[in-house]
Amino acid sequence: MFSFEITNSDDYARTGVFSYPKGKVETPCFMPVATCASIRLLTSQEVMDMGFGAIILNAYHLFKRPGLEILKKSGGIHNFMRWNGMVVSDSGGFQIFSLPDSHADENGIILKDPESGITHYFTPEKVMEIQNSIGADVIMCLDYCPKIWDNLKEVNLGVHRTVSWAKRSKLVHTNPRQQLWGIIQGGVDIGLRKYCFEELEKISFEGYGIGGLSIGEPWEKTIEVVNSICRSIGKKVVYLMGVGMPDQIVETVELGVDFFDCAMPTRIARNGTTISWSGKFNIKAASCKEQQIPLDPECDCFVCRTYTRAYIRHLFNAKEMLGMRLNSYHNLYFMAKLMEKIREAINKKAFAQFKKDFLTKYKRKEKNA
Amino acid sequence: MFSFEITNSDDYARTGVFSYPKGKVETPCFMPVATCASIRLLTSQEVMDMGFGAIILNAYHLFKRPGLEILKKSGGIHNFMRWNGMVVSDSGGFQIFSLPDSHADENGIILKDPESGITHYFTPEKVMEIQNSIGADVIMCLDYCPKIWDNLKEVNLGVHRTVSWAKRSKLVHTNPRQQLWGIIQGGVDIGLRKYCFEELEKISFEGYGIGGLSIGEPWEKTIEVVNSICRSIGKKVVYLMGVGMPDQIVETVELGVDFFDCAMPTRIARNGTTISWSGKFNIKAASCKEQQIPLDPECDCFVCRTYTRAYIRHLFNAKEMLGMRLNSYHNLYFMAKLMEKIREAINKKAFAQFKKDFLTKYKRKEKNA
After folding, report:
1. Which of B66, B75, B177, B240 has its CB 3.0 to 4.6 Å from that of A314, i.e. a possible disulfide?
2. Chain B interface mutation, best of A35, A58, A311, A315, highest count of B Cβ atoms under 10 Å
3. Is B310 an 8 Å CB contact of chain A?
4. Under an 8 A CB cutoff, do B311 and A74 touch?
């Protein structure tokens, strides 16, 4: 029912096909973030039409709202949000990082809902149960994500917890229509990362998330960790969690990453940041005031085929939510096209040249902006 | 270049075709509100595809933002917002009602921008100039809109100002690609309304807005005023300004109104109120929590063909802006279909029956909700 086949490779970069019971996804694959069962401001159909094969959502947030009862009565997450592609659910482990007053013990994580003040105790088993109810195609083991300022002892403790929780998750994983992936922690310590992977590999997973990156560490460290893990993982699925701005994707596809997710392309869109082939810029800038050109003259999305920068800048200035919608659409469309071009370049064994050309152009204008 | 032809009538209710230089609009016509050159959350194409032939926007708001310079450089309002249908611009007279610290003298209105604190002095001539720059197809004379608590003396003063400003507007109206409509004021005093119309008719306009209604007066008074004015206006265009919830439209189409505009269908949509053929309801209600049916089972819009109430309620609960977008789309689609059915009923000389059936169903469920 599940398989991952590498179809082409160009040095470490690789294209592949991930098959799950209801379909296939081409890799490298960027997964738009639908935390609360919605890709902010966009319909599922729009995102599918852009060419995305998979989305990622969050077990903790969906447990809280709408709750498992409603998801179950709605026929599962795909039916609820009318998404026909693959769904990956994250375990909620990252929320210990993002929610204040949250902590962990050896049996799981304790998350405090900032709205209600209610705390929830999530054991690995509980999180598996939640993800089973949500009905995603790929589910993640509960992991312990250390904070950037944690010392080696704490990071080490986190790795041991992550491994122990992965074991417990695997033990209760019985649904054959869901594939369970492990999450590799270990901060920026290569030794710990390697150890974590080896312990997880003993439990045996078909895919591995690289967690706990892009939380403040220098980019060279990210690259070092990702490269080292990719070399260890080999032909199994590599999913770099929470990392996914265009330049980051290009630089880590080169190391062998297959899956990405990142809220940034849509989050920055809502603040007016537009991603273009010539780099990022903010549409609210005075320089866009009278520009009668599309957000990105090289883009063929419906927003770029229809509207001018002058109009979209006006929408942001007038606080018209249509501005956020149009910019979100464009940024996500850009991501879809980027992934397409990346796969094309790898298939043609021309990834190194693509990377060079892309980054030169993408980063040049950004500097001049 | 401009003409208005009544094609069918059923008692006082009538269908017609309003022709303007670039196209035609079927009446009775509901105009979605695009105050700041955007129909909140929706694209122009979506609104055109629903079947709307005209929108209304606001001279004062566009003067403020994006400003006339940018509109000019963008090739006028149609091109700026990519709207291919008819555009009506309101004069900004109503803003004396909606903006605090605004007032008037015999030469015009003084509006204070609540954001910047800057005051703008709008004479009838200035407003004509602004509307000319915006480039709408139909423009409105500056009018003086009395407040609901104004006494007869003040309402009377408002009528005299409105008439005097209409004269001055007509004098400077030179653009043949714009038709200028007068606005009838006079509160709920039938005599004053009649007087106002007769004075405006001496100046001679091809269309008349009925202004200053739906500002707090009892509905029976609205009906009385509209009926009396419709009888006076006869075969020229009647535009009932700012009134346009479904039941209000049905009840005043019966009196002979041709054009409507109202921000309510989209404004209430953003608060979760859904308009359906069985009446209004709030999608945030607990009763919708698990409902696996469309917003309106009788509606064939893309939202109703795609999503469940349970999902859209969740979006509102999770503060996902997609909820507002989907509900706005549905409500506006409803308005388009309502106008279509109204025109159909008039053409079949079956409006009285349509009205009875519609209101019975629309108001019954509302009471039970």
Report:
1. B66
2. A311
3. yes
4. yes
**Region A134-160 average pLDDT:** 93
How far, in Å, CA of B16 to CA of B18, rounded? Answer: 7
CA angle A227, A35, A237 (to 5 degrees): 30
Mean pLDDT of chain A: 96
Residues 6+ apart with CB under 8 A from A245: A262, A264, A265
Which of A248, A310, A253, A257 has the alpha carbon at shortest distance from A285?
A: A310
**Rounded distance, CA B369 to CA A271, Å?**
39
- C-alpha closest to that of A250 among A176, A132, A346: A346
Q: What is the pTM of this model?
A: 0.97
Q: How far apart are CA A100 and CA B352, in angstroms?
A: 62
For chain A, domains (ranges, CATH) are 3-262 (3.20.20.105), 269-368 (no CATH)
Candidates A90, A137, A143, A296; catalytic one: A90
The residues near A328 (Cβ < 8 Å, ≥ 6 apart) are A40, A41, A42, A266, A269, A270
Region for residue B279 given its phi and psi (left: phi exceeds 0; alpha: psi -120 to 50; beta: otherwise):
left
Contact status of B12 with chain A (Cβ, < 8 Å) = no
Return the pLDDT at B96.
78
Cα distances (Å, whole numbers) of residue B224 to B148, B151, B190, B219, B243: 16, 19, 8, 9, 14
Q: What percent of chain A clears pLDDT 70, i.e. is strictly above it?
A: 99
The DSSP output letter for A152 is H
Q: What is the pLDDT of residues B171-205, one digit of tens each?
A: 999 999 999 999 999 999 999 999 999 999 999 99
Q: Is A261 a catalytic residue?
A: yes
- Tally of residues, chain A: 369
Per-residue pLDDT tens over the stretch A66-75: 999 999 999 9
